[in-house]
């Protein structure tokens, strides 16, 4: 039971709702054009959760091996850091999770595409492998891009653009330029979650030579960057709703920005990086709420 709890800790269950947001939004955009498939929906949710868990295992391993997770770290202790899981156990966990990822990707593609759609199947296999590679290389290896300030770009691309547009394409087999707007909104908010993590860990990251965006620009500019991410997410979503307004349900997702704007006021007052930690959950859950309410507002099959 203790080992089971250790794996649950390494999986970091509190991060999983955030990963679902893009699937909800991509599915809802497909619904606007009259597309829906229960198999694709369920398998897309399972696949994104599996990718997130792989990423969490890899982050636990990568930061632990590099010594980034140490006594200076403010957030919850990770499995490797606390000695709950060994280096070899985490390596094995990563390998098993990658196998599960690939199995879910192929199962998802089986239901999403016909045999004649071979070019789409190949494309999504490549994207799936790229997603797994990116999830692992964020902190693992000597050239981990999370240590060079590229983590924000990764999160925006994979949690926002690829998650929303990719899931939309699985249903529709086409994309639209306006779909980029809600995809960008989810991407900006997902990046904001990472940014809070980096604001919190700025001192320990400096000591570990983890050169995040916040380490490079500093705490005060990091706050301004955070405000910009939230406001760009709001503008992107508002612009989409303006173009695709059908009824009051179309705008209910904007309710999710109320706690986000309250959150910004709190962020402006924070001086001690330790106090950014409680804000992580608020932004992650608000992003999930945004995705879920967007799904409700634009799902004509409910």
Quick structural overview:
The protein is mainly alpha-helical and 302 residues long. Helices cover 73% and strands 0% of the residues.
Top keywords for this entry?
single chain; globular; 302 residues; mainly alpha
Written overview of the protein:
- It is a single chain.
- This protein starts with a helix and ends with a helix.
- With 302 residues, the protein is an all-alpha fold.
- The protein contains 13 helices and no strands.
- The chain is globular and about 50 Å long.
- Helix 2 runs parallel beside helix 7 (151-172), helix 3 runs antiparallel to helix 5 and helix 3 (38-66) packs antiparallel against helix 7.
- The chain has helices at residues 2-11, 16-32, 38-66, 79-82, 87-112, 118-137, 151-172, 180-200, 202-207, 213-217, 219-243, 257-269, 277-298.
- The chain has a single domain, classed as Farnesyl Diphosphate Synthase (Orthogonal Bundle).
Task: Lay out the secondary structure.
Layout: H1 2-11, H2 16-32, H3 38-66, H4 79-82, H5 87-112, H6 118-137, H7 151-172, H8 180-200, H9 202-207, H10 213-217, H11 219-243, H12 257-269, H13 277-298
Helix pairs in contact: 2-3, 2-7, 2-8, 2-13, 3-5, 3-6, 3-7, 5-6, 7-8, 8-11, 8-13, 11-12, 12-13
- The CATH class: Mainly Alpha
The total count of helices amounts to 13
The mean pLDDT is: 90
What is the N-to-C order of secondary-structure elements (H for helix, E for strand)?
Answer: HHHHHHHHHHHHH
Biggest pleated sheet: none
| Helix/sheet category | mainly alpha
How far the N terminus sits from the C terminus, by CA atoms, comes to 40 Å
Number of strands: 0
The whole-angstrom Rg is 19 Å
How much strand? under 5%
Kindly report the CATH topology. Answer: Farnesyl Diphosphate Synthase
Q: Work out the helicity level.
A: over 70%
Number of domains: 1
Question: Overall 3D geometry?
Answer: globular
CATH architecture: Orthogonal Bundle
Low-confidence stretches: none
């Amino acid at each position: 039971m203790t080992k089971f709890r250790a794996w649950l800790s390494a999986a970091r269950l509190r991060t999983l709702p955030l990963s679902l947001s893009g699937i909800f939004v991509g599915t809802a955009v497909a619904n606007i054009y009259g597309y829906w498939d229960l198999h694709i929906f369920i398998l897309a949710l399972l696949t994104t959760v599996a990718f997130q868990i792989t990423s969490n295992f890899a982050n636990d391993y990568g930061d632990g091996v590099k010594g980034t997770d140490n006594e200076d770290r403010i957030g919850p202790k990770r499995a490797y850091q606390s000695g709950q899981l060994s280096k070899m156990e985490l390596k094995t966990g990563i390998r098993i999770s990658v196998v599960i990822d690939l199995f879910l990707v192929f199962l998802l593609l089986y239901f999403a595409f016909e045999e004649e759609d071979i070019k789409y199947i190949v494309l999504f296999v490549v994207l799936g492998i790229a997603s797994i590679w990116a999830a692992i290389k964020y902190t693992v290896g000597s050239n981990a891009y999370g240590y060079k300030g590229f983590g924000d770009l990764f999160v925006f691309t994979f949690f926002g653009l690829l998650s929303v547009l990719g899931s939309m394409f699985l249903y529709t087999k086409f994309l639209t330029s306006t779909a980029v707007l809600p995809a960008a909104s989810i991407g900006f908010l997902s990046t904001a979650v990472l940014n809070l993590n980096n604001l919190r860990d700025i001192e320990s990251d400096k000591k570990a030579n983890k050169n995040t965006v916040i380490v490079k620009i500093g705490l005060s500019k990091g706050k301004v960057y955070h405000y910009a991410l939230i406001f760009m997410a709001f503008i992107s979503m508002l612009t989409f709703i303006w173009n695709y307004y059908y009824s009051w349900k179309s705008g209910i997702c904007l309710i999710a920005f109320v706690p986000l704007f309250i959150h910004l006021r709190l962020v402006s007052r924070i001086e001690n990086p330790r106090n950014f930690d409680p804000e992580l959950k608020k932004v992650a859950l608000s992003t999930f709420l945004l995705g879920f309410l967007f799904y409700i507002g634009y799902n004509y099959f409910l």
